[in-house]
Amino acid sequence: MKIEICVPSSATTKERGDLLETLSREMLEIQNFKVEEEVKKTGMELDLLCKHNVADRTIYVECKAYRDGKIDAPIIRQLMGTIVLQGYSEGWLISTSELGKEAKGIEDELASKGLAGKLVIYTPRKIIDSLLASKIINPPPQAQLIQYLPEENIGEWSLLITPYGKFWAVAILEGGMPSKVVCYHAKSLSLVDDQALLDNIASTDSNLSKLDFSKIILFTKKEKKLSLEESLIEVVEVQKGDDWNDYRPARPEDFVGRTKDINDIFDFFKKIKEKETTRRCFAITGNSGLGKSSLIIKLLEKAENRHQKHKVYICAVDVRAAKSSEYIYAALLKTLKNAQKKGFGDPEINILITNASHPLDSESITEYLESVDKANQIIVLVFDQFEELFSKPDLSDLFTNTSNMLMDATSLQFNFCIGFAWKTDSTTHTENPAYFFWHKLSEYRMVRKLSPFSDRESHTVISKFEDVIGQKLDGDLKHNLTVSSQGYPWLLKKLCIHLYDKLEQGAKQEDLLENKLDIASLFSDDLSELSISAILCSNRTKI
């Protein structure tokens, strides 16, 4: 269960701080403490000096209500230092975020040294337990809700502390993904059916706010089961060409070069499995036409060979098909379920996204990825054409969802990796969320930047082309193909297809050589497929 301090987007920092203070004072009053002094108060943090009403004890309390991320080890060390240097009886940390891995290690170390009583840490679960014990709230009405919904369609409960009251909120799953939200008053456990109040709760910055808060009329299962359709989000996997002359990404048998890039990426997967790196992200970058998508197809083929098929599972999805910010989560769900069908991890776990903001923290997904770790396997989700989202400002939340998933993957350290194919010759304004996304993740990713083909690699492609057409090319014609393609695999392929078409039409190699491959007709053919308005736009661009 989670707990969140939630305010409307129009709220001030003081208003958020007031909600955090109210929660903290309730926690302290439960333990018979009163606040003596506010040392610091901001929207996300509150430091208090408190005195016990009976015993002669003064404690130092730090309250944290971070929106994202976990409590890091330096926060614990700094708080412990304050307690010791100032001579306080003890210190408290009240946090609506979980402890990070290193922070948990320090907590365990303090306990082993008999210092657990010197620092009391209230994580979300302990805060909720304390509020439950004091009857400030009641347990989430899971038993009440399963009268109307199958349990597998109910997500994880969150306690929302808002200006409008305290509420238990839960995501309703459709197709294994969060879709709608049901809210109950945290004290009375009565269903929130006032649409105006639901709209107010939805207007806050909770991690559920992007879901549908529309009033839901619940019927008992005997009367009518709430319709929960399978997710309508279609996830499109990266497609390869059907033949050598298909302009889509190259078939693995037609692929040339990039051996070092392939080996480095699979070495990276091995380091993840052996816990030799904390990174859980890689990026394939480079200009348009350098074969990033074709490299992804080659990675998929290698993952299917007899040496890797039970060790590495890769799913590559085309982000151009995204129509909503939930596309990323739908891709995650599809990847994990497909991997499970292929023999990765525990086959008995029902994989569901029950945590709307941090899907990897969903109970079933955490359990499943733990089983993948135990089997010494790795699952990889690759997003191709990710930069195409720059032109879809209505999908800006998608970057937040992807960032959350990557940060959680890095924090949880499972054998789960996220990859990106990212075009570097496109312009991204600094105001674009993609700009912040890409630069924020720079320290978390391993990068393979593709360079243009060498002459040797271009000659290998041309040799494959000669095998296809059943004739050898004139040496000068080969040279012209190599020079004209400028090291771009996509352009070399286009020129080879053009040459093939001309030879099929009866042209002679010497005529094509004399006419410089008749490249002008190649681009004339491309222009002939455009509308008049598109041609005019192209001409203006050239001017």
Work out the count of structural domains.
Answer: 4
Strand content: 15-25%
Q: What sort of overall outline do the alpha carbons produce when their principal axes are compared?
A: elongated
CATH architecture call of the largest domain: 3-Layer(aba) Sandwich
Helix content: 25-40%
Assign the CATH topology of the largest domain.
Rossmann fold
Task: Say which CATH homologous superfamily of the largest domain is assigned.
Answer: P-loop containing nucleotide triphosphate hydrolases
**Secondary structure category:** alpha/beta
- Largest sheet: spatial strand order: 2-3-4-5-6
Give the biggest sheet: 5 strands, mixed
Provide a count of the helices.
18
Radius of gyration: 29 Å
Number of strands: 14
CATH C-level class of the largest domain: Alpha Beta
pLDDT under 50 segments (min length 5)? 219-230
The rounded distance between the terminal residues' Cα atoms is 60 Å
Mean pLDDT across every amino acid position: 82
